[in-house]
Automatic annotation (TrEMBL):
Top-level taxon in the UniProt lineage: Bacteria
TM region(s), chain numbering: 7-29, 35-53, 65-83
Gene source species: Paenibacillus hexagrammi
Pfam family, one: Mntp
Protein known as: Manganese efflux pump
Family annotation (InterPro entries): Mntp/YtaF
Keyword line: Cell membrane, Membrane, Transmembrane, Transmembrane helix
Length: 96
């Protein structure tokens, strides 16, 4: 079961790189291989970087994670309740 989850995870991560490489194949430009290789390396490295950052953050805030998560959730709720409407009004005024 874990192997199936890993395969699905890897396929979902690589799908956007595959689609980008396919669309890059249609374009007449130099350095297609370099561009495709750069995207592939980024797709491979970013999950590893996120894993290490998440592991480090987990060790730092491990016991306090519930409290920090609750405070962050309340902060987002307060921001949405009191400040989100002002941004929409300013946007509608600029369109006029």
């Amino acid at each position: 079961m874990d192997a199936l989850k890993m395969i699905v995870f890897i396929l979902s991560l690589g799908m956007d790189t595959l689609l980008m490489s396919i669309s890059l194949g249609f374009v007449q430009t130099k350095g297609k291989t370099k561009i495709a290789f750069t995207f592939a390396c980024a797709e491979a490295l970013m999950p590893l970087v996120g894993l290490f950052i998440g592991k480090s953050a987990g060790h730092i805030i491990g016991d306090w994670a519930s409290l920090i998560g609750g405070i962050a959730l309340l902060a987002v709720a307060i921001w949405l309740l009191f400040f989100e409407d002002e941004d929409e009004e300013e946007g509608s005024l600029q369109e006029i």
